[in-house]
Structure of Tyrosine-protein kinase:
Amino acid sequence: MSRPGARAGSSPEDRLRRACPCLGALWDRIFQEKSDPPAPPGPVYTAMWSFEAGHPDELSFRRGDLFLVLNSSGDWWDAHKIERNGRVLAAGIVPSNYLTQADSLSEQPWYFGTMNRFDAQGHLMGPENQDGSFLVRHSERDGVGYVLSVRSSNRVKHYKIVQSNESSFHIAASLPFPTLQALVEHYQSAVLQNAGRLGSACKRRQPGRSDLSHSTVDHWTLPKGEFSLGEQLGSGYFADVYRGRWKNLINVAVKILKSDSDVDFREFHREVNMLKTLHHRYLISLFAICTESTPYYIITELMEKGSLLSFLRGPEGRLQDVPALVDMSVQVSEAMAYLEERRSIHRDLAARNVLVGADYICKVADFGLARIIKEPVYVTTEKKIPYKWSAPEALSHGTFSSKSDVWSFGILLYEVFTYGGVPYPGLDNQEVFEQVKTGYRMPKPTDCPDFIYHLMTECWQQEPEDRPDFRTLQRRLNSSTYEFK
Ligand SMILES: Nc1ncnc2c1ncn2[C@@H]1O[C@H](COP(=O)(O)OP(=O)(O)OP(=O)(O)O)[C@@H](O)[C@H]1O
Ligand SMILES: [Mg+2]
Protein backbone atom coordinates (compact mmCIF):
# COMPACT_ATOMS: atom_id res chain seq x y z
CA MET A 1 0.00 0.00 0.00
CA SER A 2 1.61 3.27 -0.95
CA ARG A 3 1.03 6.02 1.51
CA PRO A 4 0.86 9.72 0.80
CA GLY A 5 4.08 11.49 1.56
CA ALA A 6 6.37 8.46 1.25
CA ARG A 7 8.78 9.51 -1.49
CA ALA A 8 11.70 7.36 -2.59
CA GLY A 9 15.34 8.47 -2.58
CA SER A 10 15.42 10.65 0.56
CA SER A 11 17.46 10.00 3.73
CA PRO A 12 15.96 8.10 6.71
CA GLU A 13 15.93 11.41 8.61
CA ASP A 14 13.99 13.16 5.85
CA ARG A 15 11.55 10.32 5.59
CA LEU A 16 10.92 10.20 9.34
CA ARG A 17 10.49 13.98 9.55
CA ARG A 18 8.05 14.00 6.66
CA ALA A 19 6.07 10.96 7.82
CA CYS A 20 5.65 12.28 11.32
CA PRO A 21 6.16 16.04 11.51
CA CYS A 22 4.52 16.18 14.94
CA LEU A 23 7.55 14.35 16.39
CA GLY A 24 9.93 17.19 15.42
CA ALA A 25 11.45 17.41 18.89
CA LEU A 26 12.26 13.72 18.86
CA TRP A 27 13.90 13.89 15.44
CA ASP A 28 15.91 17.00 16.52
CA ARG A 29 17.23 15.11 19.49
CA ILE A 30 18.09 11.99 17.53
CA PHE A 31 19.67 13.73 14.55
CA GLN A 32 21.32 16.65 16.35
CA GLU A 33 24.89 15.28 16.28
CA LYS A 34 25.43 15.67 12.56
CA SER A 35 29.17 14.93 12.72
CA ASP A 36 28.69 11.50 14.21
CA PRO A 37 25.15 10.44 13.33
CA PRO A 38 23.69 7.76 15.59
CA ALA A 39 22.37 4.55 14.06
CA PRO A 40 18.89 5.31 12.69
CA PRO A 41 16.31 4.54 15.37
CA GLY A 42 13.74 1.85 14.77
CA PRO A 43 10.41 3.19 13.68
CA VAL A 44 8.29 4.95 16.28
CA TYR A 45 4.99 3.24 17.07
CA THR A 46 1.84 4.74 18.49
CA ALA A 47 -0.88 3.00 20.52
CA MET A 48 -4.26 2.79 18.79
CA TRP A 49 -6.01 1.66 21.97
CA SER A 50 -5.38 1.80 25.69
CA PHE A 51 -4.12 -1.42 27.24
CA GLU A 52 -4.16 -2.76 30.76
CA ALA A 53 -1.19 -4.93 31.75
CA GLY A 54 -1.99 -8.51 32.80
CA HIS A 55 1.51 -9.12 34.28
CA PRO A 56 4.11 -6.98 36.10
CA ASP A 57 6.51 -7.17 33.10
CA GLU A 58 3.88 -5.68 30.77
CA LEU A 59 3.30 -1.97 30.23
CA SER A 60 -0.12 -0.38 30.64
CA PHE A 61 -0.65 2.48 28.21
CA ARG A 62 -3.14 4.95 26.76
CA ARG A 63 -4.18 5.56 23.19
CA GLY A 64 -1.68 7.87 21.50
CA ASP A 65 1.33 6.85 23.65
CA LEU A 66 4.58 6.46 21.69
CA PHE A 67 7.01 3.54 21.66
CA LEU A 68 10.39 2.50 20.34
CA VAL A 69 10.39 -1.25 19.78
CA LEU A 70 13.51 -3.18 20.82
CA ASN A 71 12.43 -6.67 19.80
CA SER A 72 9.53 -7.21 17.43
CA SER A 73 9.33 -10.97 17.09
CA GLY A 74 6.07 -12.74 17.94
CA ASP A 75 2.85 -11.20 19.27
CA TRP A 76 4.46 -9.53 22.32
CA TRP A 77 7.20 -6.98 21.83
CA ASP A 78 9.89 -5.49 24.10
CA ALA A 79 9.46 -1.75 23.94
CA HIS A 80 10.32 1.60 25.48
CA LYS A 81 7.44 3.97 26.12
CA ILE A 82 8.81 7.40 25.12
CA GLU A 83 7.91 11.07 25.30
CA ARG A 84 7.61 13.13 22.13
CA ASN A 85 11.18 14.39 22.70
CA GLY A 86 12.46 10.80 22.84
CA ARG A 87 12.95 10.54 26.63
CA VAL A 88 12.30 6.99 27.80
CA LEU A 89 9.46 6.81 30.33
CA ALA A 90 9.25 3.06 30.92
CA ALA A 91 10.35 -0.28 29.51
CA GLY A 92 8.28 -3.44 29.24
CA ILE A 93 6.34 -5.88 27.10
CA VAL A 94 3.47 -4.71 24.87
CA PRO A 95 0.92 -6.51 22.62
CA SER A 96 1.94 -5.89 19.00
CA ASN A 97 -1.62 -5.64 17.65
CA TYR A 98 -2.31 -2.54 19.77
CA LEU A 99 0.45 -0.57 18.04
CA THR A 100 0.84 0.89 14.59
CA GLN A 101 3.79 2.69 13.03
CA ALA A 102 3.46 6.37 13.77
CA ASP A 103 2.96 8.28 10.57
CA SER A 104 0.66 11.06 9.63
CA LEU A 105 -2.03 8.75 8.24
CA SER A 106 -2.22 6.11 10.96
CA GLU A 107 -2.37 8.85 13.61
CA GLN A 108 -5.61 10.16 12.11
CA PRO A 109 -8.54 9.09 14.29
CA TRP A 110 -10.58 8.25 11.17
CA TYR A 111 -8.02 5.99 9.45
CA PHE A 112 -8.79 2.31 10.19
CA GLY A 113 -6.18 0.58 8.00
CA THR A 114 -7.07 -2.57 6.08
CA MET A 115 -10.70 -3.42 6.73
CA ASN A 116 -13.55 -4.94 4.76
CA ARG A 117 -17.03 -3.60 4.22
CA PHE A 118 -18.70 -5.84 6.82
CA ASP A 119 -16.27 -4.77 9.56
CA ALA A 120 -16.71 -1.12 8.59
CA GLN A 121 -20.50 -1.44 8.85
CA GLY A 122 -20.13 -3.13 12.20
CA HIS A 123 -18.04 -0.28 13.58
CA LEU A 124 -20.15 2.54 12.16
CA MET A 125 -23.54 1.09 13.13
CA GLY A 126 -22.47 0.64 16.77
CA PRO A 127 -24.48 2.67 19.33
CA GLU A 128 -21.43 4.85 20.06
CA ASN A 129 -21.63 6.39 16.56
CA GLN A 130 -24.22 8.63 14.87
CA ASP A 131 -25.27 9.78 11.42
CA GLY A 132 -22.24 11.39 9.77
CA SER A 133 -19.72 9.16 11.57
CA PHE A 134 -17.11 8.03 9.07
CA LEU A 135 -13.86 6.19 8.55
CA VAL A 136 -11.34 5.72 5.78
CA ARG A 137 -10.14 2.17 5.19
CA HIS A 138 -8.00 0.28 2.76
CA SER A 139 -10.20 -2.36 1.13
CA GLU A 140 -9.27 -6.02 1.43
CA ARG A 141 -10.42 -6.54 -2.14
CA ASP A 142 -7.78 -6.62 -4.87
CA GLY A 143 -7.36 -3.34 -6.69
CA VAL A 144 -9.97 -1.35 -4.75
CA GLY A 145 -7.62 0.83 -2.65
CA TYR A 146 -8.96 3.39 -0.17
CA VAL A 147 -12.67 3.61 0.68
CA LEU A 148 -14.58 6.28 2.62
CA SER A 149 -17.39 4.62 4.64
CA VAL A 150 -20.04 6.95 6.07
CA ARG A 151 -23.07 6.33 8.27
CA SER A 152 -26.04 8.11 6.75
CA SER A 153 -29.78 7.67 7.46
CA ASN A 154 -28.96 4.62 9.56
CA ARG A 155 -27.11 2.72 6.89
CA VAL A 156 -23.54 2.77 5.71
CA LYS A 157 -22.47 4.10 2.32
CA HIS A 158 -19.10 3.34 0.79
CA TYR A 159 -17.23 5.67 -1.59
CA LYS A 160 -14.19 4.57 -3.52
CA ILE A 161 -11.31 7.05 -3.19
CA VAL A 162 -9.39 6.97 -6.44
CA GLN A 163 -5.65 7.48 -6.01
CA SER A 164 -4.20 8.53 -9.37
CA ASN A 165 -0.68 9.06 -8.04
CA GLU A 166 1.08 9.62 -4.70
CA SER A 167 -0.43 13.05 -4.25
CA SER A 168 -3.82 12.92 -5.92
CA PHE A 169 -6.92 11.49 -4.26
CA HIS A 170 -10.50 11.99 -5.35
CA ILE A 171 -14.06 10.76 -5.01
CA ALA A 172 -15.32 13.07 -7.77
CA ALA A 173 -12.78 13.25 -10.61
CA SER A 174 -13.25 17.02 -10.89
CA LEU A 175 -12.15 17.52 -7.26
CA PRO A 176 -8.73 15.99 -6.50
CA PHE A 177 -6.83 16.51 -3.23
CA PRO A 178 -3.11 16.16 -2.46
CA THR A 179 -3.68 13.96 0.62
CA LEU A 180 -6.41 11.87 2.22
CA GLN A 181 -6.40 14.37 5.11
CA ALA A 182 -7.25 17.21 2.73
CA LEU A 183 -10.02 15.16 1.15
CA VAL A 184 -11.57 14.36 4.53
CA GLU A 185 -11.32 17.99 5.72
CA HIS A 186 -13.06 19.14 2.55
CA TYR A 187 -16.03 16.79 3.02
CA GLN A 188 -16.31 17.81 6.66
CA SER A 189 -17.38 21.24 5.46
CA ALA A 190 -18.86 20.48 2.02
CA VAL A 191 -21.64 18.05 1.14
CA LEU A 192 -20.75 14.56 -0.06
CA GLN A 193 -23.21 13.25 -2.61
CA ASN A 194 -26.06 11.27 -0.95
CA ALA A 195 -24.50 11.43 2.50
CA GLY A 196 -24.32 15.08 3.61
CA ARG A 197 -21.27 16.37 5.50
CA LEU A 198 -18.88 14.10 7.33
CA GLY A 199 -19.37 14.30 11.10
CA SER A 200 -16.99 12.83 13.67
CA ALA A 201 -14.55 10.00 13.20
CA CYS A 202 -15.90 6.54 13.93
CA LYS A 203 -15.13 5.41 17.51
CA ARG A 204 -12.54 2.64 17.65
CA ARG A 205 -13.05 -0.72 19.31
CA GLN A 206 -10.43 -2.72 21.09
CA PRO A 207 -8.76 -5.51 19.04
CA GLY A 208 -8.92 -9.12 20.18
CA ARG A 209 -6.05 -10.59 22.18
CA SER A 210 -4.07 -13.57 21.00
CA ASP A 211 -3.15 -14.44 24.60
CA LEU A 212 -4.33 -13.56 28.10
CA SER A 213 -0.87 -12.18 28.82
CA HIS A 214 2.65 -12.69 27.47
CA SER A 215 3.17 -15.05 30.42
CA THR A 216 0.51 -17.49 29.18
CA VAL A 217 1.98 -17.85 25.67
CA ASP A 218 3.98 -20.90 26.80
CA HIS A 219 2.28 -21.64 30.12
CA TRP A 220 -1.31 -22.16 29.14
CA THR A 221 -2.43 -24.77 31.67
CA LEU A 222 -3.90 -22.55 34.34
CA PRO A 223 -5.69 -23.20 37.64
CA LYS A 224 -9.48 -22.96 37.57
CA GLY A 225 -9.22 -20.52 40.48
CA GLU A 226 -7.91 -17.79 38.15
CA PHE A 227 -11.27 -17.69 36.36
CA SER A 228 -14.62 -16.45 37.60
CA LEU A 229 -17.77 -17.65 35.82
CA GLY A 230 -20.72 -15.47 34.81
CA GLU A 231 -23.88 -16.16 32.80
CA GLN A 232 -24.23 -19.21 30.57
CA LEU A 233 -23.86 -18.24 26.90
CA GLY A 234 -24.91 -21.46 25.28
CA SER A 235 -24.73 -25.16 25.24
CA GLY A 236 -23.69 -27.72 22.63
CA TYR A 237 -23.64 -31.49 22.67
CA PHE A 238 -20.11 -31.58 24.04
CA ALA A 239 -19.90 -28.53 26.28
CA ASP A 240 -21.60 -25.70 28.16
CA VAL A 241 -20.21 -22.25 27.50
CA TYR A 242 -20.04 -19.44 30.09
CA ARG A 243 -18.98 -15.82 30.09
CA GLY A 244 -15.96 -15.53 32.40
CA ARG A 245 -13.10 -13.31 33.57
CA TRP A 246 -9.41 -14.03 34.05
CA LYS A 247 -7.93 -12.53 37.25
CA ASN A 248 -10.77 -10.03 37.08
CA LEU A 249 -8.91 -8.35 34.20
CA ILE A 250 -9.92 -9.90 30.90
CA ASN A 251 -13.25 -11.17 29.55
CA VAL A 252 -13.12 -14.74 28.26
CA ALA A 253 -15.41 -17.58 27.22
CA VAL A 254 -15.15 -20.70 29.38
CA LYS A 255 -16.11 -23.92 27.65
CA ILE A 256 -16.79 -26.67 30.17
CA LEU A 257 -16.54 -30.09 28.57
CA LYS A 258 -19.32 -32.56 29.26
CA SER A 259 -17.60 -35.62 27.83
CA ASP A 260 -14.38 -35.27 29.83
CA SER A 261 -14.37 -38.95 30.71
CA ASP A 262 -13.91 -39.75 27.00
CA VAL A 263 -11.01 -37.34 26.53
CA ASP A 264 -7.50 -38.79 26.61
CA PHE A 265 -5.66 -36.33 28.87
CA ARG A 266 -2.26 -36.62 27.12
CA GLU A 267 -3.70 -36.44 23.66
CA PHE A 268 -5.78 -33.44 24.69
CA HIS A 269 -2.61 -31.64 25.86
CA ARG A 270 -0.78 -32.57 22.66
CA GLU A 271 -3.61 -31.29 20.48
CA VAL A 272 -3.98 -28.05 22.45
CA ASN A 273 -0.22 -27.54 22.19
CA MET A 274 -0.59 -27.59 18.41
CA LEU A 275 -3.78 -25.51 18.36
CA LYS A 276 -2.08 -22.83 20.50
CA THR A 277 0.38 -22.24 17.65
CA LEU A 278 -2.43 -21.28 15.26
CA HIS A 279 -2.96 -17.53 15.15
CA HIS A 280 -5.11 -15.77 12.61
CA ARG A 281 -7.36 -12.75 12.90
CA TYR A 282 -10.34 -14.85 11.75
CA LEU A 283 -9.66 -17.79 14.08
CA ILE A 284 -10.81 -17.78 17.70
CA SER A 285 -7.82 -17.41 20.02
CA LEU A 286 -7.36 -20.36 22.31
CA PHE A 287 -6.06 -18.87 25.57
CA ALA A 288 -5.71 -21.68 28.08
CA ILE A 289 -7.02 -24.95 29.46
CA CYS A 290 -7.77 -26.04 33.02
CA THR A 291 -7.21 -29.75 33.53
CA GLU A 292 -6.39 -30.11 37.24
CA SER A 293 -9.78 -31.77 37.75
CA THR A 294 -12.80 -32.76 35.68
CA PRO A 295 -14.72 -31.21 34.06
CA TYR A 296 -11.97 -29.73 31.88
CA TYR A 297 -12.19 -26.07 30.86
CA ILE A 298 -11.18 -24.62 27.50
CA ILE A 299 -10.64 -20.86 27.71
CA THR A 300 -11.05 -18.83 24.52
CA GLU A 301 -11.63 -15.26 23.54
CA LEU A 302 -15.18 -14.05 24.13
CA MET A 303 -17.28 -13.26 21.08
CA GLU A 304 -20.07 -10.93 22.15
CA LYS A 305 -22.60 -11.69 19.42
CA GLY A 306 -22.51 -15.47 19.73
CA SER A 307 -22.69 -17.90 16.82
CA LEU A 308 -23.03 -16.77 13.20
CA LEU A 309 -26.06 -19.05 12.94
CA SER A 310 -28.03 -17.28 15.67
CA PHE A 311 -26.76 -13.88 14.46
CA LEU A 312 -28.08 -14.49 10.93
CA ARG A 313 -31.42 -15.73 12.27
CA GLY A 314 -31.78 -12.74 14.61
CA PRO A 315 -32.95 -9.17 13.93
CA GLU A 316 -29.47 -7.95 12.94
CA GLY A 317 -28.98 -10.78 10.46
CA ARG A 318 -31.83 -9.68 8.23
CA LEU A 319 -30.25 -6.23 7.92
CA GLN A 320 -27.16 -7.66 6.22
CA ASP A 321 -27.01 -7.09 2.48
CA VAL A 322 -25.30 -9.34 -0.07
CA PRO A 323 -21.90 -7.55 0.13
CA ALA A 324 -21.91 -8.01 3.91
CA LEU A 325 -22.78 -11.72 3.51
CA VAL A 326 -19.92 -12.04 1.00
CA ASP A 327 -17.55 -10.40 3.51
CA MET A 328 -18.55 -12.88 6.24
CA SER A 329 -17.83 -15.73 3.83
CA VAL A 330 -14.48 -14.17 2.88
CA GLN A 331 -13.46 -14.03 6.54
CA VAL A 332 -14.29 -17.71 7.05
CA SER A 333 -12.52 -18.72 3.81
CA GLU A 334 -9.41 -16.78 4.88
CA ALA A 335 -9.23 -18.58 8.23
CA MET A 336 -9.81 -21.91 6.51
CA ALA A 337 -7.09 -21.17 3.91
CA TYR A 338 -4.73 -20.55 6.81
CA LEU A 339 -5.68 -23.89 8.42
CA GLU A 340 -5.33 -25.64 5.05
CA GLU A 341 -1.80 -24.27 4.66
CA ARG A 342 -0.93 -25.42 8.16
CA ARG A 343 -2.35 -28.86 7.25
CA SER A 344 -4.89 -28.58 10.01
CA ILE A 345 -8.34 -30.03 9.38
CA HIS A 346 -11.37 -28.50 11.06
CA ARG A 347 -13.82 -31.47 10.72
CA ASP A 348 -16.82 -29.52 12.01
CA LEU A 349 -17.12 -26.35 9.94
CA ALA A 350 -20.68 -24.95 10.14
CA ALA A 351 -22.30 -21.59 10.89
CA ARG A 352 -22.82 -22.72 14.52
CA ASN A 353 -19.02 -22.95 14.83
CA VAL A 354 -18.33 -19.46 13.50
CA LEU A 355 -18.63 -16.74 16.14
CA VAL A 356 -19.38 -13.04 15.71
CA GLY A 357 -17.61 -10.35 17.74
CA ALA A 358 -18.96 -7.04 19.05
CA ASP A 359 -17.30 -5.43 16.02
CA TYR A 360 -18.97 -7.94 13.66
CA ILE A 361 -15.77 -9.77 12.96
CA CYS A 362 -16.41 -13.45 12.15
CA LYS A 363 -14.04 -16.02 13.60
CA VAL A 364 -13.89 -19.75 13.08
CA ALA A 365 -14.18 -21.71 16.35
CA ASP A 366 -13.88 -25.33 17.49
CA PHE A 367 -11.16 -26.15 14.94
CA GLY A 368 -9.13 -29.26 15.54
CA LEU A 369 -10.79 -30.15 18.81
CA ALA A 370 -13.40 -32.18 16.92
CA ARG A 371 -11.03 -35.11 16.56
CA ILE A 372 -10.27 -35.57 20.25
CA ILE A 373 -13.48 -34.39 21.87
CA LYS A 374 -16.21 -35.16 19.42
CA GLU A 375 -15.20 -38.29 17.57
CA PRO A 376 -15.43 -40.68 20.51
CA VAL A 377 -19.02 -39.48 20.81
CA TYR A 378 -19.70 -39.64 17.07
CA VAL A 379 -18.60 -43.25 17.02
CA THR A 380 -20.86 -44.28 19.86
CA THR A 381 -23.92 -42.13 19.16
CA GLU A 382 -24.26 -42.13 15.42
CA LYS A 383 -27.17 -39.73 15.31
CA LYS A 384 -24.97 -36.87 16.49
CA ILE A 385 -22.78 -36.88 13.37
CA PRO A 386 -23.36 -33.53 11.62
CA TYR A 387 -24.55 -35.39 8.49
CA LYS A 388 -25.81 -32.36 6.65
CA TRP A 389 -22.38 -30.68 6.76
CA SER A 390 -20.24 -33.76 6.09
CA ALA A 391 -18.67 -34.75 2.77
CA PRO A 392 -19.75 -38.16 1.41
CA GLU A 393 -16.26 -39.68 1.87
CA ALA A 394 -16.16 -38.48 5.50
CA LEU A 395 -19.51 -40.16 6.18
CA SER A 396 -18.83 -43.41 4.36
CA HIS A 397 -15.14 -43.97 5.15
CA GLY A 398 -14.27 -41.46 7.87
CA THR A 399 -11.89 -39.76 5.40
CA PHE A 400 -11.45 -36.17 6.58
CA SER A 401 -9.26 -33.71 4.68
CA SER A 402 -9.13 -30.02 3.84
CA LYS A 403 -11.33 -30.97 0.89
CA SER A 404 -13.99 -32.43 3.20
CA ASP A 405 -13.81 -29.08 5.02
CA VAL A 406 -14.41 -27.43 1.62
CA TRP A 407 -17.63 -29.46 1.26
CA SER A 408 -18.75 -28.17 4.67
CA PHE A 409 -17.84 -24.63 3.59
CA GLY A 410 -20.31 -25.02 0.69
CA ILE A 411 -23.03 -25.88 3.24
CA LEU A 412 -21.94 -22.89 5.35
CA LEU A 413 -22.38 -20.66 2.27
CA TYR A 414 -25.91 -22.04 1.99
CA GLU A 415 -26.55 -21.18 5.66
CA VAL A 416 -25.18 -17.65 5.20
CA PHE A 417 -27.13 -16.83 2.04
CA THR A 418 -30.39 -18.19 3.52
CA TYR A 419 -29.88 -16.15 6.74
CA GLY A 420 -29.46 -19.26 8.86
CA GLY A 421 -31.63 -21.70 6.91
CA VAL A 422 -31.43 -25.42 7.73
CA PRO A 423 -29.67 -27.29 4.90
CA TYR A 424 -31.71 -29.89 2.98
CA PRO A 425 -35.03 -28.67 4.44
CA GLY A 426 -37.52 -31.47 4.89
CA LEU A 427 -34.93 -34.28 4.69
CA ASP A 428 -33.65 -36.26 7.66
CA ASN A 429 -30.04 -37.38 8.10
CA GLN A 430 -30.45 -40.81 6.50
CA GLU A 431 -32.31 -39.34 3.51
CA VAL A 432 -29.57 -36.74 3.01
CA PHE A 433 -26.90 -39.43 3.13
CA GLU A 434 -28.70 -41.59 0.54
CA GLN A 435 -29.65 -38.73 -1.78
CA VAL A 436 -26.26 -37.02 -1.78
CA LYS A 437 -24.61 -40.37 -2.57
CA THR A 438 -26.75 -40.64 -5.71
CA GLY A 439 -25.84 -37.12 -6.83
CA TYR A 440 -28.58 -34.93 -5.33
CA ARG A 441 -27.51 -31.34 -4.48
CA MET A 442 -29.53 -28.49 -2.97
CA PRO A 443 -31.06 -26.04 -5.47
CA LYS A 444 -30.11 -22.35 -5.54
CA PRO A 445 -31.66 -20.51 -2.57
CA THR A 446 -33.95 -17.58 -3.39
CA ASP A 447 -32.04 -14.30 -3.86
CA CYS A 448 -28.66 -16.07 -3.72
CA PRO A 449 -26.30 -14.52 -6.32
CA ASP A 450 -25.44 -16.93 -9.16
CA PHE A 451 -21.69 -16.76 -8.52
CA ILE A 452 -22.18 -17.84 -4.88
CA TYR A 453 -24.37 -20.78 -5.89
CA HIS A 454 -21.75 -21.73 -8.45
CA LEU A 455 -19.12 -21.80 -5.68
CA MET A 456 -21.42 -23.97 -3.51
CA THR A 457 -21.84 -26.55 -6.27
CA GLU A 458 -18.07 -26.64 -6.81
CA CYS A 459 -17.58 -27.33 -3.10
CA TRP A 460 -20.04 -30.22 -3.47
CA GLN A 461 -18.20 -32.07 -6.22
CA GLN A 462 -18.32 -35.81 -5.53
CA GLU A 463 -14.55 -36.27 -5.88
CA PRO A 464 -12.53 -34.31 -3.27
CA GLU A 465 -9.83 -33.42 -5.83
CA ASP A 466 -12.43 -31.74 -8.06
CA ARG A 467 -13.33 -29.25 -5.30
CA PRO A 468 -11.46 -25.91 -5.15
CA ASP A 469 -9.07 -25.32 -2.25
CA PHE A 470 -9.72 -22.59 0.33
CA ARG A 471 -7.12 -20.18 -1.06
CA THR A 472 -8.92 -20.31 -4.42
CA LEU A 473 -12.31 -19.87 -2.75
CA GLN A 474 -10.99 -16.86 -0.82
CA ARG A 475 -9.58 -15.29 -3.99
CA ARG A 476 -12.79 -15.84 -5.93
CA LEU A 477 -14.99 -14.43 -3.15
CA ASN A 478 -12.63 -11.50 -2.71
CA SER A 479 -12.54 -10.55 -6.36
CA SER A 480 -16.33 -10.44 -6.57
CA THR A 481 -17.70 -7.12 -7.71
CA TYR A 482 -19.86 -6.58 -4.67
CA GLU A 483 -17.81 -3.95 -2.83
CA PHE A 484 -19.86 -1.01 -4.08
CA LYS A 485 -23.28 -2.49 -4.81
N1 LIG B 1 -16.08 -17.97 22.49
C1 LIG B 1 -17.40 -17.80 22.61
N2 LIG B 1 -17.89 -16.56 22.83
C2 LIG B 1 -19.23 -16.38 22.95
N3 LIG B 1 -20.16 -17.35 22.85
C3 LIG B 1 -19.72 -18.60 22.62
C4 LIG B 1 -18.33 -18.90 22.50
N4 LIG B 1 -18.20 -20.22 22.25
C5 LIG B 1 -19.45 -20.73 22.24
N5 LIG B 1 -20.38 -19.77 22.47
C6 LIG B 1 -21.84 -19.92 22.55
O1 LIG B 1 -22.12 -21.18 23.11
C7 LIG B 1 -22.89 -21.96 22.20
C8 LIG B 1 -22.50 -23.41 22.32
O2 LIG B 1 -21.23 -23.60 21.77
P1 LIG B 1 -20.67 -25.07 21.51
O3 LIG B 1 -19.46 -24.94 20.66
O4 LIG B 1 -20.52 -25.77 22.82
O5 LIG B 1 -21.84 -25.80 20.74
P2 LIG B 1 -22.30 -25.65 19.22
O6 LIG B 1 -21.26 -24.94 18.43
O7 LIG B 1 -23.67 -25.07 19.21
O8 LIG B 1 -22.38 -27.12 18.70
P3 LIG B 1 -21.17 -28.14 18.60
O9 LIG B 1 -21.35 -28.99 19.80
O10 LIG B 1 -21.37 -28.83 17.31
O11 LIG B 1 -19.88 -27.37 18.65
C9 LIG B 1 -22.64 -21.34 20.83
O12 LIG B 1 -23.70 -21.52 19.97
C10 LIG B 1 -22.46 -19.86 21.17
O13 LIG B 1 -23.72 -19.24 21.26
MG1 LIG C 1 -19.25 -25.08 18.62
In short: Residues 322-341 form the longest helix (20 residues). The radius of gyration is 25 Å. The chain is about 30% helix and 20% strand.
